[in-house]
Structures are given as C-alpha cells and as structure tokens.
Design goal:
The complex is a heterodimer.
Chain A: E1 8-12, E2 15-19, H1 25-31, E3 37-38, E4 44-45, E5 58-61, E6 64-68, E7 79-81
Parallel strand pairs in A: 1-7
Antiparallel strand pairs in A: 1-2, 3-4, 5-6, 5-7
Chain B: E1 2-10, H1 14-25, E2 30-34, H2 52-62, E3 67-70, E4 73-79, E5 82-86, E6 91-101, E7 105-107, E8 120-121, H3 123-131, E9 140-146, H4 149-159, E10 163-169, H5 176-184, H6 187-199, E11 205-207, E12 209-215, E13 222-227, E14 230-235, E15 238-243, E16 245-247, H7 250-255, E17 259-260, E18 263-264, E19 277-279, H8 288-303, H9 307-318, H10 321-330, E20 346-348, E21 353-354, H11 355-358, H12 364-371, H13 383-391, H14 410-413, H15 421-437
Parallel strand pairs in B: 1-2, 1-6, 2-3, 6-19, 8-15, 9-10, 9-15, 10-11
Antiparallel strand pairs in B: 4-5, 5-6, 7-16, 12-13, 13-14, 17-18, 20-21
The chains are: A mainly beta, B alpha/beta.
C-alpha cells in the first residue's frame, strides 16, 4: 500500500496546485512559473530576499492585496493572485 | 488590545531564542515576537536538514513557558515601554519592562544590469525558497557575491539536487587568508567549512569574480561573469547572489539606540544606550550563530537581573570578537563593484528609480525627496544599503527613520494610544465583560 504523503491544494491564478504542508506561497507561485508582481514601469518581478524585507513577492491572497508571499504558508483552499 | 511582559524579545533567530530561554529560566514573563510564521530566524529556517545546535535550541524553546507571537511584525514604538505590532488580522500593543532586540541581518544586494529579472535572487533567498518547498533538483544555479553564506548555500542546494554551475566570490583569495587563520581558533567553524567544501566538490570556485549582467527576456536565462578582465556567459535557471549581510537596524534606530559604523553599540552586558533596551546577535556585529547564541544568553540573563551569570558569559564573548573583525575584512567590497550599474540600471526596485536619476544627488534624504528612491514598501531596506556603497552617501539610518518601520494597515495606525498599558488592558477587559452581559 503506498504511503500517504500529506498534501494540500490551492489555486494560483486559477490553476489548481498540490503542495506539501510547510510550502510558502512564494515557492508555490514559482512552481507554476509565474512572476509575483508588475513593477511601476511594468517589469515582471519575482522574489528577491525571501525573508520579508524586499516586498517583491507581494501578491493578493484570498482577496487581500499586498501580502508578502514568502512569509505566508500555503493553506488548503487558498486563492492566490499575482498582478 | 495590549499585552504586558517583564521581558519582550524581538526576533526569534538564534540570539532571540537564547535570550528568551535564558530570561524565562530566570523566572520572568517573556514574550517572543517574530515576523516569520515559525521560530529559527533566517539561519535555522525549517524545511530540510538542520544542524544539531538548531535542533537543541528549538527543542529547548518549545519547552520554555513564554508567549509566542510568531507572524507578528513590530512597526511602531508609540511610547517608552511599548512596541506596537500587527499580524495578518490583528494589532496589539506589547508592553515591557525590559526589551531585547534580536532583529538579525539581511543580505546586501548590489544593482547590476538585469538584477531585477525574476529568478535573480539572494543566496540566502534561494535557500529560503528551497526550504519553503521550491523544487531545485537538476536546476542550474550560479551562486555569487561574497561571504561564507555563499558556500553554505551552494552546499545546501547541491544536497537537494541542484547543479551548481559556479561559485563566484568577489574577494581575492589573499583576503581570505586572515579569515582562515581566525577559523583555526574556532574548530566548530572549521569543521563546517570542510563539510561545505566537500559537498560542493566538483563545482568551479572563482575568487575575484562577479556577475556583471543577468540576461533574459521574462526571466533569467544566463549570467555574464567577469574575472580579471575576462568575461564569459553561463546559462542557468537561478542566480543566487548576495554581498554578505547587513544588520536590521530599523527598530534599534527608531527606539534611539546609539548606532556607530553601521552597528548597534552595546556594553559587555548587551545594554544599548537606550534605557532598559538590550541588543544581541547580528545588529551588534556580523558574527554568526555561535556569537549570537552567546549574546542572546547574556542579554536574557542581564535583562532578568542575573548580572553575575551574564558577566561570566560576557568574558567568553570577548574572545570571539576577533572572528567578527576577520569576517568584516574578508568580505570588504571591491571598489570596482561600484561600476556595475549602468545609467538605466534600476537601483530602487520598489519605485523603479534608475542609476542615472540618483547620480547627481548628494544625500539619501535629497535622493528620496527628488526621485522617490527608498519611498516604496521596502522603505529603502534594499536600495538604501546599495546607495550607501555606490555613492558614499552617509548611512540612511538612523537619521531618516520614522514609524511605521514596516507598512501597516490603516486600522493598525489608528488604534487609540493615549492610555498606559494597564489602563488599556482594563478597558479591554471591561468591554468583554459588557459584551458577556448583553442578552443574546
């Protein structure tokens, strides 16, 4: 019988994704190949510091904007949107 | 809402954990607050392997009676004896008799063409993402910058299956000789070094070498490297690039702790110039985990009034300060790194301010006012450090610090703050009592 690996599902820009508990939202976004935000002049950006300092990884989580995805763990049913 | 503590510790990395455990063991009511969802700081981040010392301290912490405020950001110092913090859904005043600041350090980033491309990130940054679940198996990673963190990161990523295409250290090899000498008196660190070297065996290691451009359309595709006049291009999936560490001084500066040469000044018992405020770990000098643990214990004991025990540990601390100086000398930035940014290279990533817009200015304050450099959500945490090196402007801190030191919700900024802590607690209790009296 195969061992059950704990997992949870969330949506990143509408795409369903399964990750293991303890995965940060920033890591989940990178798994989908998406960037995290558009800069003032329109560049694609991704995480830089991954420790809550640079704010490059800000996304919308469950409708709340400006969430630093590197500091937040994935939760079952979470809805993540990048800009 | 407010909470009161005998001793409040800000930062749950090695220094903060050691401080909180020591203060709690001395019988004090301790609060431990950290922005991250779990304790350990950047160096003992969960996910993947941990050294035994991390496991020991995290286990000790788990068994320690204290109030854990993980996922809380301190953003204001509304009055003496009180810090204000918010979580993703709440805001609280944290009142204290004594405060221990263990705010840690962050990576220093230097701007170069292409450094804003996705998948160009900090060295510690990529390691944190991998610990946070990012698959790195068979990905090609170039590790670059300066400092011992690079070797540790390369080793960690290699263990997770990454192909380390090269490790580039900006310092020339001769600068590392005094540093290696300081390691000889630190056997534990020497062992770590050997372990890292073994794990990264087979990887090209270049000294006197750094990335001059990151190339790609929507994300990183390759990196151009330079060493002694030679240039070449390397294809990779990630560039993990950090130029050593700088301390997180925003909170010490806001509280008014004296800062000299970029570090918080403390006495032998980790007391800062601000009354009842102690500081431990990287903000007092970049010295690594062992020194941070020692300083944390000293601060915890001293804050709890166990001066004699703290004094005994303080003598052990002074023997380790040579390592701090050697590390600082080894990681000194090459002046040629100032020439990496071109006119159009963005220096401020939040507000997209290019190098050419900043060159004409003479101070951080002037640049902020004229160009919006440092006015975005990171509040200059990234570009303030870079401009200090690039333009030789005076340090951005402490002169320009003001609350909130982190972006905070409007509702958090608006909470009443006139009463003292005890008064607010009583009010909160009275309100909840009233609510209970209401008929359903």
């Amino acid at each position: 019988m195969p061992e059950l690996v704990p997992s949870l599902s969330l949506k990143v820009n509408g795409v369903l994704l399964t990750v293991t508990p303890g995965t940060t939202v920033a890591a989940a976004i990178l798994m989908t190949g998406s960037s995290t935000r558009r800069s003032v002049i329109g560049e694609s950006r991704g995480p830089l510091c991954a420790m809550g300092v640079c704010f490059e990884c800000q996304v919308i989580i469950d409708g709340t904007p400006h969430q630093r995805s590197c500091q937040i763990l994935c939760v079952e049913g979470m809805d993540v949107r990048t800009s | 809402m407010s909470e009161s503590f005998d001793i409040l510790v800000v930062g749950a990395g090695p220094a903060g954990i050691a401080a909180a455990v020591a203060a709690s063991a001395a019988g004090k009511r301790v609060g431990l607050v950290d922005d991250n969802p779990a304790p350990g700081g950047q160096i003992w981040r969960r996910g993947g392997s941990q050294p035994a010392v991390a496991h020991n301290w995290l286990t000790k912490l788990e068994a320690t009676p204290l109030v854990r405020l993980y996922g809380w950001r301190v953003f204001d110092f509304p009055r003496p004896g009180t810090l204000r913090a918010e979580s993703n859904s709440d805001c609280r005043d944290l009142c204290f008799e004594k405060l221990i600041l263990a705010t840690g350090a962050r990576e220093r980033f230097l701007p170069f063409p292409g450094w804003t491309l996705p998948n160009v990130m900090g060295a510690g940054g990529l390691e944190a993402l991998v610990r946070g679940g990012l698959p790195i198996n068979r990905k090609r990673v170039l590790v670059a910058g300066t400092g011992p963190l690079l070797v540790a990161v390369a080793a960690h990523l290699a263990r997770h299956g990454a192909v380390i295409v090269a490790l580039c250290e900006q310092a020339p090899l001769r600068r590392f000789i005094p540093f290696a000498a300081s390691l000889l008196s630190e056997p534990a660190k020497l062992l770590q070094g050997i372990e890292y070297a073994m794990a990264t065996l087979g990887t090209s290691f270049y000294t006197d070498c750094w990335p001059i451009a990151a190339i790609g359309t929507d994300k990183l595709e390759s990196v151009r490297l330079q060493r002694k006049g030679k240039q070449w291009e390397v294809h990779c999936d990630y560039l993990a690039c950090g130029y050593h560490l700088v301390p997180n001084l925003e909170l010490p500066a806001l509280i008014g702790c004296r800062i000299e040469d970029g570090f918080v000044m403390t006495d032998e018992l980790q007391r800062t110039s601000a009354p009842d405020v102690f500081c431990a770990g990287e903000p007092t000098g970049i010295g690594g985990v062992e020194l941070a643990l020692l300083e944390g214990q000293i601060a915890g004991l001293a804050a709890a009034g166990e001066t004699e025990k703290a004094g005994q540990l303080a003598r052990r601390r002074s023997s380790r300060l040579g390592f701090v100086r050697a590390l600082q000398a080894a990681t000194r930035l090459d002046e040629r790194l100032k020439g990496l940014a071109t006119d159009t290279t963005l220096v401020c990533r939040c507000e997209d301010v290019p190098f050419e817009a900043l060159r004409e200015h003479t101070s951080w304050r002037e640049a902020k006012l004229q160009t919006r450099c440092g006015m975005g959500p990171c509040q200059g945490r990234i570009c303030g450090v870079a401009t200090e090196f690039l333009f030789g402007w005076g340090p951005a801190l402490p002169s320009t610090i003001r609350p909130p030191v982190f972006p905070a919700r409007v509702s958090s900024l608006g909470i009443p703050g006139d009463g003292d802590c005890a008064g607010e607690s009583i009010t909160a209790a009275a309100i909840s009592a009233d609510v209970q009296k209401e008929p359903l």
